[in-house]
Amino acid sequence: MLFADEFGYAALRPLVASGEIVRVREGAYFTPSNAADTWEREMEVALAHAVGVVGTLGCDHVLSHQTAALVHGCWVGRLDGDTHITQRTKPRDNDVLGLRRHVAQWEEADVVAIEGLPVTSLERTIEDCARFLTPREGLLVADSGLRVLARPDRFDRVASEIRLEEHRRLIQGRLVPKKGWRGIARGRAVLAAADGFAESAGESRLRWVALSRGLPRPVCQFPVETERGQFFLDFAWPQKEGGQEFPDGARVLGEEYDGRAKYGDEIAGTTGRPNQALFEEKLREDALRTTGVRLRRRVAEDLHDPDRVADDMRRRFPSAAAAPSSPFEVFSSSYCPAKLPQWGGLRREAWRDSDEGRIESGHDLPTRPPGSPARGTRPAEGPAPRRFRRGGRPRAGAADRRGRPPAGGDRAA
After folding, report:
1. How confident is the model at residue 345 (pLDDT cuts 50, 70, 90)?
2. Is residue 156 part of a domain?
3. Residue 5 burial by CB count (10 A; 0-12/13-18/19+): exposed, middle or buried?
4. What share of the chain has pLDDT > 70, as a percent?
5. What would the pLDDT profile of 118-163 be if each residue is shown by its tens digit?
6. Are 335 and 293 within 8 A, CB to CB?
7. Distance between CA atoms of residues 119 and 74, nearest Å
8. Domain for residue 410, yes or no?
9. How many domains does the chain have?
10. Which residues contact 132 (CB under 8 A, 6 or more apart)?
């Protein structure tokens, strides 16, 4: 990073004109790399803007929310183009392009220094993102954050689950004294569903599709023993003992997310040839099929239509298990790290994104009876309620609710 306070605008102006450096903020410039992927360039610019904010902003602040998650190396699904900071006092001017200010208090343990940048701790970052991001984006941060904290090993599942639960309870404990605050219900739901065994952002997004549409909680990195050795599914639903049988004699319903790099030159463990990677994956799937695994593969384009993917997932289950249910119901499986708690009255809107792209509030209130009008809307039939009349006043000459005539009117004989 180059700052005008150190080098002067006159010295930096020719470099900007030649394209060697790029301005990310008033008085802050950086040298862009030759990253080919769009997401790499966006992440590079976002990190450079965060460094520029820290170097030029004078108030007491820390990087937080999506920006802190990015600095910690968590998966961030959608960059909004802003650098998020938290400060203790309300700013005089909150309308600064590219800067999102949050007002909150923090303790000394909530702040760490990463490469000289003041950043909220990973636990505080997971809490903030689970509360204030959409459930889909919050789950990405929570999954990757737990993975960084607990370092789960799929070959040592028992010990890994213990570490994951310890860190989960630690973060959930941060929400207890904040009961009733904004985003607490959503944060509890996201933290309860987070799983550090998820190994990519695509897996977390695909799992969110299942959870948000009421399907049972799957098991991440489900192990399967085959004649060719042990393989792990991205996530799966194993057959329950004494439960309804899966269709087609399946013992396990598996789901996997396939990125383009999986079959490209970057594939690990092969010669680097796409055909070789595809052949080895074919042998793996054949071995899984002989053990009763029925596997579905999804790609990035499938996640653009989550309802269609969820319907396809639901058709794989028996009719009773496929019925939409609360997203907090899970299979009883020894592989499942913990059952999700049953939040009384917590509506699904606290977990799902609405169709309009907004996030419903999601609070502990009973849902409205079927067919009842939404709050603040006019009934379909019948006279309009008193509050909807123009001006909010009773009609001229009408008595009030106590039966008294309006002001200036004659009292009835």
Report:
1. very low
2. no
3. exposed
4. 71
5. 999 999 999 999 999 999 999 999 999 999 999 999 999 999 999 9
6. no
7. 13
8. no
9. 1
10. 65, 138, 182, 183
SS (H, E, C) the chain: CEEHHHHCHHHHHHHHHHCCCEEEECCEEECCCCCCCHHHHHHHHHHHHHHHHHHHCCCCEEECHHHHHHHHCCCCCCCCCCEEEEECCCCCCCCCCCEEEEECCCCHHHEEEECCEEEECHHHHHHHHHHHCCHHHHHHHHHHHHHHHHCCCCCCHHHHHHHHHHHHHHHHHHHHHHCCCCCHHHHHHHHHHCCCCCCCHHHHHHHHHHHHCCCCECEEEEEEEECCEEEEEEEEEECCCCCCCCHHHCCEEEEEECCHHHHCCCCCCCCCCHHHHHHHHHHHHHHHHHCCEEEEEECHHHHHCHHHHHHHHHHCCCHHHHCCCCCCCECCCCCCCCCCCCCCCCCHHHCCECCCCCECCCCCCCCCCCCCCCCCCCCCCCCCCHHHCHHHCCCCCCCCCCCCCCCCCCCCC
* Domain contains 151: no
Question: Quick check: 296 and 248 in contact, CB under 8 A?
Answer: no
Q: Provide the domain limits for residue 274.
A: 200-336
- Provide the β-strand partners of residue 255: 235, 296
**Length of the chain as a residue count:** 413
| CA angle, 201 then 196 then 228, to 5° | 85
- Considering the chain, what is the average pLDDT of its residues? 77
Residue 401 exposure: Cα atoms within 13 Å on the Cβ side = 2
Nearest one of 19, 18, 21 to 30, comparing CA atoms: 21
Q: Classify residue 166: in a domain, yes or no.
A: no
Token match 């203790």: residue?
88
Q: What is the dihedral of CA 276, 282, 287, 288, to 10 degrees?
A: 120
Longest dimension (CA), the chain: 102
